[in-house]
Automatic annotation (TrEMBL):
Belongs to the class-I aminoacyl-tRNA synthetase family. It catalyses: tRNA(Cys) + L-cysteine + ATP = L-cysteinyl-tRNA(Cys) + AMP + diphosphate. PANTHER family: CYSTEINE--TRNA LIGASE, CYTOPLASMIC (PTHR10890:SF3), CYSTEINYL-TRNA SYNTHETASE (PTHR10890). GO terms for cellular component: cytosol. This is Cysteine--tRNA ligase. Its cofactor is Zn(2+). CDD domains: CysRS_core. Monomer. It comes from Roseimaritima ulvae. Coiled coil: none annotated. One of its GO terms (molecular function) is ATP binding. GO terms for biological process: cysteinyl-tRNA aminoacylation.
Length: 535
């Protein structure tokens, strides 16, 4: 099959940097996107604390910001994406004691698990993944700077940030002074105010510790991100991302530390994604999946999926559902909305993807070219087409513009995916009306229109990180079970085929309907029948 790019004729290069608006949590409004040092863009996303295996909630931010980087890059920006790894923390220390192994071993194992899951979901745009333990010198220097400027104070080996010294504290999370609380426990008695928070914690017993001007100890959670983002992205950078549950206290504290240390804003745009919760509010794409803007941060945080509420087993979930289905599922909802996670929603995502897979098979049959072998256009300014008098290509041009309008409006991937379904309808209608089939003349105008249109579809799906490699069949279990299930399904498909050939449609329909009740869909194609799990 050919691996050549689909030929396209440029219609208009347009502006190098199109109008893009981003919702800034700090200002609570959508603002024009204007990077500090265009075309360079710096993005920092808070990553995981690696004390246990990743769950599906850990993938929300990485998938979203991987897509955001793809889109910004497509628009001509030079993007640096940083996702940190917290590998020293109370939870890691507790897990180390529980398992009787070094904290570093747990962190290494769980980081490997996290990165393997990122790969399966197509997250490959991260440039730096700094670890807290590799940045201890920078963290200590950062704290020393805050202390020397009067923003921090040491007590018995602990160092605290004095919140009262930062007059803008609370603006990000919209909290008043009496709503601000730092760490409790033994540290509370040593603080000047309950709202002060730890920058450095004195070592206790045999827990991991590092030498510092205040004695042996380890950093607080918030200071790690301030130090690492500063080292890689500078004093002020463009975008800081993370879940809504991190807005307070984590991001509020990061912002205070960094702005006070450097006498400059830490971030220009604060972007917070909605959280994931288990529920039965309806299928993906319904209003229930997009109504998080009416929920408070507290409501979303209360219902979010976490390890304490049964979240986990992401590797197994990927094996059953495939990484592509999970990525598609996460992008079907606008990033600021709550994502309702349930079996029905995942089944809906799988059914939706099948429509694309069927079209790819159809295109392959007609053109002799695999959709996956097409090289997508990598710049927005280069990808438009000259429709001429072709009504199909004019419709494709309009759909492309509609896709970009959705993404320009605060990275609305949900609306952008809706455009992709419109694309499918347009392309399938063109094939049907033109009578294109396996024996189609590759030099006919109808074939040329199809190739050009599919090239645009390839461009848009690549921006979302979808369909980058051939689809993987879901297993639903271990290898032996998957092999047995495959053999049994082949037998049932053959029996159904035989029944249809003998015009025994009652038996044929009974096999299909019973399998549907069991959560298995039969997909009839020109080259045979395949199947997939829907539950």
């Amino acid at each position: 099959m050919s691996t050549a790019a689909v030929p396209q004729t440029s219609k208009s290069t347009g502006p190098t940097m199109p109008e893009l608006r981003v919702y800034n949590t700090l200002s609570k409004t959508k603002e024009p996107f204007a990077p500090l040092h265009p075309p360079k863009v710096g993005i920092y996303l808070c990553g995981p604390t690696v004390y246990a295996e990743a769950h599906i909630g850990h993938m929300v931010g990485p998938v979203i910001f991987d897509t955001i980087k793809r889109y910004l890059t497509h628009n001509g920006y030079q993007v640096t994406l940083v996702v940190n790894i917290t590998d020293v923390d109370d939870k890691l220390i507790a897990k180390s004691r529980e398992r009787g192994v070094p904290m570093s071993q747990i962190a290494t194992e769980m980081t490997a698990d996290y990165m393997a899951n990122l790969k399966e979901l197509g997250v490959n745009q991260i440039d730096y993944m700094p670890r807290a333990t590799d940045n201890m010198d920078g963290i200590i220097q950062f704290i020393q700077s805050l202390e020397s400027q009067g923003y921090a104070y040491a007590v018995d080996g602990d160092v605290f940030f004095e919140v009262a010294k930062d007059k803008s504290y609370g603006e990000l999370s919209n909290r008043s002074t009496d709503q601000q609380q730092g760490e409790g426990g033994g540290a509370a008695a040593r603080k000047r105010s309950p709202s002060d928070f730890a920058l450095w914690k004195a070592a206790k017993g045999d827990e991991p510790a590092w030498d510092s001007p205040w004695g042996r100890g380890r950093p607080g959670w918030h200071i790690e991100c301030s130090a690492m983002s500063h080292r890689i992205l500078g004093e002020t950078f463009d975008i800081h991302g993370g879940g809504l549950d991190l807005m307070f206290p984590h991001h509020e504290n990061e912002r205070a530390q960094s702005s006070c240390c450097h006498n400059a804003p830490m971030v220009k745009y604060w972007m917070h994604n909605g959280l994931m919760r288990a529920g039965n509010k309806g299928k993906v794409g319904g209003k229930s999946d997009r109504d998080a803007t009416t929920e408070s941060v507290a409501e979303q945080t209360e219902g979010k999926i976490s390890r304490s509420k049964g979240g986990g087993g992401l590797a197994e979930l990927i094996r059953k559902q495939t990484g592509e289905r999970l990525r598609f599922f996460l992008l079907r909802t606008h990033y600021r909305s709550t994502i309702v996670f349930n079996d029905e929603a995942l089944a809906e995502a799988g059914t939706s993807l099948e429509a694309f897979y069927r079209f790819f098979d159809r295109f392959d049959e007609i053109s002799g070219t695999s959709f996956y072998d097409l090289k997508p256009v990598t710049r927005r300014s280069e990808g438009d087409i000259d429709a001429g008098q072709d009504p199909v290509l004019e419709e494709v041009h309009q759909l492309r513009e509609k896709f970009f309008a959705a993404m320009d409006d605060d990275f609305n991937t949900g609306a952008a995916i809706s455009v992709l379904f419109d694309f499918l309808r347009t392309l399938n209608r063109h094939i049907d009306q033109s009578g294109l089939g396996k024996a189609a003349d590759p030099n006919s105008p109808a074939s040329a229109t199809l190739r050009t249109a599919v090239g645009v579809l390839r461009e848009l799906t690549a921006i979302l990180g979808l369909f980058m490699r051939p689809a993987v069949q879901t297993t639903g279990g271990d290898d032996a079970e998957a092999e047995l299930a495959g053999d049994l399904m082949s037998l049932l498909i053959e029996l159904r085929k035989s029944a249809r050939e003998n015009k025994d449609f009652a038996t044929s329909d009974a096999i299909r309907d019973r399998l549907a009740e069991l959560g298995i869909a039969l997909l009839d194609k020109k080259d045979g029948t395949s199947w997939e799990r829907t539950k």
